[in-house]
Amino acid sequence: MVVGLGTNAGTYSLDEVLYSLWLAYGNCCFVGAWQCLACWLAFLGPRYFLFPIELLLRKQRLVDRFLPSTYFPRVRALIENTTLYKVLRQMPKGGALHLHVSASFSMTWVVNQGADDPPLGSLAFYNATQAPRACRCRARRSEGCAPGTHVLIQKDKDFPQKLLKLLTVHEEDESLTSAEIWKKFADIFIRVAGFFTYREALEGYFWATMLEFLEDGVTHLEFRVDLFHDQGFLFDLDGREYRGAAALDVYQKQIQKMQVRHPELTVKLIGTSIRMRSPQVIAEDLAFALEVKAQRPDLLVGWDAPGEEDAGHPTLDYARQLLELKKQAKAGLELPLMLHDGESDWSTMNTVDAVLLGAKRLGHGFNIVRHPLLMEKVREDGVAIEVCPISNQVLRYLSDLRIHPGLQMLKMGLPVTISSDDPGIWGARGLSHDFWEVAVAWQLNTRALKTLARNSRLGLKGISELLLNRTFKATELEIFPGHFVTKR
Ligand SMILES: [Zn+2]
């Protein structure tokens, strides 16, 4: 029997075909149901239950360019051409716990919609803190407004390509340092921020994002969304403004519409400030987030302050404000901390502080491996770690994913989950590219892949009952039964 592995296509054994079949069997319950093919294979014995991915990797090791050690934008197309990628697209992957809403889906969509779809075609791609420029132009009928995309295309037919290049990372960005690529990242978010202040633009993108992840076998999504007390609101073209809970309702409406079609989908939001803000301003953002939490307790499930760790405030700078938040929790208003910490090759103190502050999740958290006792505490407390492998490589924290600390965490039994962070910026889709990278780089067998998927769902139970409604709980425990941590 023959199965293709893209550029490394060749003849493979029955074992390899069975492995593909196993993963491809999208509805595998993994609990021994008689109607489940994968469970029948498991029943045949440990040889199949612990099916080694090495069989699929044998030829990967012999090629002159090992894909997970190469900058993702250089090898994305090669990965997509493999059978393993196509199989992983079909595999249920649980939840994506770490996504930033304005970069979680294709930037090509942003450019195309901006170019083709009036009134989006009349919006400018900047001005993050105020209403979309088109809104102000229309309202005031003023002269001298920045031209919209459709006007720019009339002047230069290559404009969409030029714009797309400004919104994405490329092969040549491999030569940038971590600080330089972060600067590029910041520019991208500034460029698209204005676009996403327009309610209809956000709705369209958010809808397309949910569909993308559903097609990728991901049924629970959590998005970091801006929740500043003084900016980042949504607008209609007639000037209507959506702040706080009203802005969250814009997301909720789309989620409920999607759940009619896909009742298996659950979506939650994590409100964010940014660690570049002063502790005093962060305190105001936290107070604002708490107000919103009181109004939309089921939708808003956490708080975070993302941003480049080495350039922004250390977590300790606003620890006092976070401790105040914990006092509120004792008073009955809980907003769990899900902190971007541990995304640094320099200091690991943010990771230590995040755990001591009682964070329920660590965003990235890869430098925790330098603290064995901290790892032990994280395992005991069930603090899920949102590992984003491709993001870490793109942002130049490491080059070769074989040495990504996530593997050590997984082997130590920490509740590791896989997320894709900002996949739209580097052209990844859903979670499959990240799963492919870790499956190949870490040489994971089927059981480990299932553990990663299961951690992303059962991890929620360990975080807070607030995150789960009854329907979700029942459904998920049926689909992903078992224990939170990896069995050793
Ligand atoms: Zn992130």
From TrEMBL:
Q: What are the UniProt keywords, alphabetically?
A: Hydrolase, Membrane, Metal-binding, Purine salvage, Transmembrane, Transmembrane helix
Q: What's the cofactor?
A: Zn(2+)
Q: Membrane among the record's keywords? A: yes
Question: Which chain regions cross the lipid bilayer?
Answer: 22-43
Among its keywords, does the record have Hydrolase? Answer: yes
Domain Adenosine deaminase intervals: 171-456
Q: In which pathway does it act?
A: Purine metabolism; purine nucleoside salvage
- Which InterPro entries does UniProt cross-reference here? A_deaminase_dom, Ado/ade_deaminase, Metal_Hydrolase
User: One Pfam family this chain carries?
Assistant: A_deaminase
Question: What name has this protein been given in UniProt?
Answer: Adenosine deaminase domain-containing protein
**Species this protein is from:** Durusdinium trenchii
